Amino acid sequence: TANGAYGIKVKQPGDLPGAVRQALSVDGPALVDVDVNPEEPPMPGKVEYEQAKKFVKAFLAGQPRRATIASTLFRDKIAQLKS
Q1: Which of 4, 6, 64, 75 fits a disulfide with 26 by CB distance 3.0 to 4.6 angstroms?
Q2: What is the rounded CA–CA span in Å between residue 5 and residue 28?
Q3: Beta bridge partners of 7
Q4: What is d(CA 28, CA 2) in angstroms, rounded to the nearest whole number?
Q5: Do the Cβ atoms of 7 and 22 come closer than 8 Å?
Q6: pLDDT of 24-52, one tens digit each?
Q7: Which residues have a Cβ under 8 Å from the Cβ of 78 and sit 6 or more positions away?
Q8: Residue 53 has what pLDDT?
């Protein structure tokens, strides 16, 4: 990077472990820039009820891609319930 830190770009999920290992092996600051699915909902692994309420309120009010993100969220939840 311009400030002298090590930087690496990750475009495929399978490349992430190697990129993180590389970044951790650098003597100094490192940046791992990861492309993510824009349809993936920004949800943590565990959600409390109050967090979910606030997320839904904000999501419905200001997310222009809410239909496709909601579809991804439901698909992921169904897959989780099946496993």
Answers
A1: 6
A2: 7
A3: 31
A4: 14
A5: no
A6: 999 999 999 999 877 776 667 787 888 87
A7: none
A8: 84
Provide the whole-model pTM.
0.51
How many percent of the chain have pLDDT more than 90? 35
Query: Can you say whether the dihedral through the CA atoms of 58, 38, 43, 20 is positive or negative?
Result: negative
Kindly state the DSSP code that residue 8 receives in the 8-state scheme. Answer: E
Rounded distance between C-alpha atoms, residue 74 and residue 80, angstroms: 10
Cβ pair 23, 8 in contact under 8 A: yes
How far apart, in whole angstroms, are the C-alpha atoms of residue 19 and residue 9?
8
How far is CA 38 from its chain centroid? 9
Residues 6, 15: Cα–Cα separation, whole Å: 17
80, two tokens: 């989780």
Residue 5, pLDDT > 70, answer: yes
Using CA atoms, how far apart are residues 83 and 75, in angstroms rounded to an integer? 13
